[in-house]
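Final report, Chapter 2: Outcomes

The project's central promise was a pipeline that accepts a single protein chain and returns its three-dimensional structure in a standardized token representation, suitable for archiving and comparison. That pipeline is now operational. To close this chapter, we reproduce one record exactly as it appears in the project archive, with the input sequence first and the structure output second.
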Amino acid sequence: MDLASWRLLARTVNKADIVVEVLDIRDPVSTHSVKLEEMITALGKRLIIVLNKSDLVPREVAEDWVYQFKSSGYDAFYVSATKRLGTRRLRGYIKAVANDQPFTVAVVGYPKTGKSSIINALKAKHSAQTSPVPGSYGYTRHVQLYKVEPGFYIIDTPGVIPIEGGWPDSIIRGKSPEELQDPVPPAMALIEKILSYNPDAFLDAYGVNSRDPLGILEEIAVKRGWRYKLSKEPLIEEAARTVIRDYHKAKILFFVPPTKLSFHRGRG
């Protein structure tokens, strides 16, 4: 997975006038980077929070999350980049708040929040790559500048924010399921978290009846015929990777209900 360094992110943010941070609306707090926000504030850049994947939650949940962020001092929008819902409104807002022409927008976010989809939605079909963003060796090879329309540019970088979150988010977003040496512990923690918000999530997704994380992995493995060759025991490692993969692909229905944010946007 191509995680950016904080140094690269600082350079990207410094070259932008506006920074769009993409969060997963199913769990916005866990996908919000406090360290990134501190960097944006220190560099004097405007921050817009975009709550992506809004098609995966009820509309009132999306609206309430936006309210919570706005109440805490943030510019915030909910969109569904893959469904192209709200992206035109977001683009219009960015143009409206840009103080100078031309202006540049950097889009950043944790892995699997849909950063690339947001970039593509903002770029639209008529955008054109112009030239690498000036910088040191390595930076120019990975960061590209796109002209969306006259005076509107987007910095596109394959790098995503280094993971800050706690267990299990730091693991399941920091590495692909295939890279995990032992996927069972983070998968079980993820299952427990999902069950706390949707007790029927794994019954709906896989048709398994267990409400115990280990039991769920065993049932999935048995249902799919995944067993160790010698012992014939359920191959729960493969089931664990499947759960993590399907969570990222939004095949497991789950979202964290909106709550009052414990962090606030500094006003200065």
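Archive annotation: The chain has two domains: 6-156, 169-248.
This record, like all others produced under the grant, will remain available to the consortium after the project formally closes.
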